[in-house]
Amino acid sequence: MQGQRYAPMPPKTPWREREDPKTGKLYYYNKDTMMVQWKKPKGIDIVRSRSQSRSPPRQARRRSPHPKSRRSSAHRRQKSAHHLQRAFSEDAMMRATDHRRSSSRGRLRRHASDMMLMHHREIKQEQYHVAQPAGSILHSTHSRESPESTTEPDETDGHSLLGGRSQARGTLAIATIDEEMRRLRRERDYLRKELKLQTQAHAIEMRTAQEEAIQLSVRIERELQRQHEIELKSTISELESEIDQQEERHARRYAKMEYEKKKELQRLEDSLREKYEEQLAEIEIRLSHHSFSQTMHTEKKSGMHVEKKSVIQKVVDLQESNDTLTRSQKDMQEENKQLKRKIKLLEKFLTESVEKHQKALENNAKEFYKQEETYQNIIEQMSTKMRQFQKKATKRSHRVSGEKPTVGGI
């Protein structure tokens, strides 16, 4: 295992590349922290689909044991050419890059990174191939121990004893680190589940609050409509009773006027009869003084009497017709007045009912808008609390995973 080395496997990343169905743009989604951003994260190989994200088989993962710079002479020549191009370039940035790479600190940094990659590669291969020993203190499925290392030291050699103890201490430290990492991962998973449940509960509360607001507004509108109908019916009944009372009063007044007119007519008839009876008596006295023939006297007397009766009858008929005309005229005037009063009352009632209905609708709208404002305030408070909790959860998850929070997260 020590002599054979492999290239480092691509690190497993939670980032995934996706496509926005509306705009067609690519965005990046972290399935662990549930963060979304447009900018591609640096230093991470991202695949777009699950089939591409699967790791290739073990034989395909094996690479050349030597670094890239030692693969071929052509590569070395190309590397030296690039180095000369940077060293003698007119661009100050390229010269600074070459100076940084060729300096002792840059060489040391590259050597350290190469060593870390080699160590990571060896640990990965041991985890993949080596089974867990029987007396190991680790509880994980992949052990970090080599198959040669055991918990019991060899008593024959002092150097091997010290090496075994240091290796046991190293495995113990690795085990404690693994336990801590597993605990932190469990805590992160628990926080994710809790955040998901709280978002679902928040959505349910929002939906129930909206439904309750709609039901309350409908209930208030129905109650106002019912009250308005009751008030309308009561006002209509009051107006009808008042109109009936006025009609009764007008009927009594009309009957009284009719009775007075009849009495006046009777008095006029009596006065006319008395007047013409006196005239007839005078005529009879005058006719009695004449000594003409008795026949002529009687004829004249009878003719005058008939004529007087006809005149009296004509006068009475004219008086009655005049009375009927005046009576009908007064009746028409009274009916006209009553109709005008009814029209005024109906117009007044219509305006009052329209004003009442308008006021009721305005009050209903004001109450509904107040309730909607309160619900909106409640929703905003809950959303701010949710955002604060989400920020805390993302910070804790980044603290657990050891990653820095990404800039540009949605």
From TrEMBL:
Q: Which residues form a coiled coil?
A: 174-282, 315-352
Q: Where are the residues of the annotated region Disordered?
A: 1-23, 40-109, 139-167, 391-410
Keywords from UniProt, A to Z, are:
Coiled coil
Start-end of Basic and acidic residues biased regions: 14-23, 88-101
Q: Would you say which domain of life the source belongs to?
A: Eukaryota
Feature: compositional bias, Low complexity: 49-58
Where in the numbering of this chain does the WW domain appear?
Answer: 9-43
Basic residues bias locations:
59-85
> Can you name this protein?
WW domain-containing protein
Organism for this UniProt entry:
Lotharella globosa
Q: What is the lineage of its organism?
A: Eukaryota, Sar, Rhizaria, Cercozoa, Chlorarachniophyceae
